[in-house]
Amino acid sequence: MKKIILFDTTLRDGEQAPGYSMQTEEKTEIATALEKLGIDIIEGGFAASSEGDLNAIKKICDAVKDSEIASLARASESDIDAAEKALKNAVSSRIHIFLATSEIHMKYKLKMSESEVLDRIEKSVKYACGKCANVQFSAEDAFRSDRKFLKKALETAIKAGATTVNIADTVGYATPEEVKSLISYLNGMNNREKVKLGIHCHNDLGMATANSISAIEAGADHIEGTINGIGERSGNAALEEIIMALKIRADILKAETKADTKLIYKTCKLVSNITGSRLPLNKPIVGSNAFKHESGIHQHGVLAAPITYEIFSPEDIGMKRSEIILGKHSGKHAFQSQLEEMGYTVTPEEINSYFEKFKALADKKKFVSGKDIEAIIHNNTADLKLNKYSLKSFVIQSHSQGAYANVILLKNEDFINEYASGLGGVDASFTAINKIIGKNLKLLSYSLNAVTEGEDALGEALVKLSDGENTVNGRGVSTDILEASILAYIDGVNKLGL
Ligand code: KIV
Ligand code: ZN
């Protein structure tokens, strides 16, 4: 079996998509989850793009020891210097240089000739090699590049010392056959055996996963992608799909990764919760319909033998098929062993805080399911550590002309009480919170979803808030949708550090 190197760019390309920005703490949490999942290389960000990105990469380097950490850099000395600075404390690091090789990009964007591009590749890769043992060169817009020139560009990078060369289908233009043909062609480049050859696929035509698999079939060593396929425009290749495709079709692909597939679901949920982007129901691998069978024929088949309609089991990705049910009489022990069975490792303080939330929920709901527990856990890594405001109580009155809200928040030791009116209960309570914090935050998006089924389902509210400078996602869960909305808003306020 050939070992495929997984390069995750959730924290760089994923974050580049509009509305997906993440806080440093959130990035570190995701990086730690990626390390546990078994990702070989984690691209922590683009150090030269902002002080925030540079610091986030530094924090990731402090927290992650088993995966290599990469920073993106343009082919310039100042970008490479910033990457070096960010990666200083990494156990293993990589400077990832990119430059476009297509005529379109060279003419309209770079305004550089072919020889200027080759010269820039040579100089930047050589410069980076003086600073880091692992230097990757990626050819941007490789699939709209002239093949011979692309090959020359990669050969130049290899000669200058690059340890990985990578071709990016930047605009998601390639087809699987084309990928196979280009990788086979590049296998013939000078010094191919000295480097790893990789691919980075975008999903504009919905072919990112297929193209990545095609590259593996043709001999690529390194595959790039993101969790849940998030990324610029229609996103990147979804790593969870590639990992499972390699596992399930090892018979023909003859390649494997070192990913622990049992951590896939947990990692995908974490990224979904942190970015405030819900997984589509029909998302391959982790969508909530992935193991649901509606038609009688399918149900009959699955009951007789799951293999009839399922090519892998929920347990393979760390999801539970049978719902565990706890109730208000369940003790801390049962709750803790349930968490462990669901794959969570939690500190004693976290257990206490989660158990308190579980008890509060069990008082309102007859049965607490695995999905409810997940909602409790994912609701608040942040609030255990840095919350400044918390909800004390609220009263909302709604009528046909609008609504009126009274919200009381606890800030440090003080209760702050405010009233506001609005178009509805949510609007009125958000305005009351704005009065409490003394800021007019902009609500960029708001959505509400049921986590579980039934009348006493937990409602999950997601908000995207901006204070004009930063944008954050806030999340709240409760059996009451107004409370969930208020909690989501407060979560956002705390993340903004107001
Ligand atoms: O899509 C792209 O071209 C990229 C490069 C920076 C590798 O993300
Ligand atoms: Zn990209």
Brief summary:
The chain is an alpha/beta fold and 498 residues long.
Structure, explained:
Helix content is 42%, strand content 21%. The protein is an alpha/beta fold and 498 residues long. The chain folds into 4 domains: 2-275, Alpha-Beta Barrel (TIM Barrel); 291-320, no CATH class; 323-385; 386-496, Alpha-isopropylmalate synthase LeuA, regulatory domain (Double Stranded RNA Binding Domain). Strands 2-3-4-5-6-7-8-9 form an 8-stranded parallel beta barrel, surrounded by 8 helices. A 3-stranded antiparallel beta sheet has the order 11-12-13. Helix 8 (176-186) links the parallel strand 7 and strand 8. Helix 3 (51-63) runs parallel beside helix 4 (77-87). The radius of gyration is 25 Å and the shape is globular. The relative contact order is 0.08. Residues 381-385 have low confidence and may be disordered. Bound molecules: 3-methyl-2-oxobutanoic acid and zinc ion. Zinc ion is lined by residues 13, 168, 170, 200, 202, 232, 236.
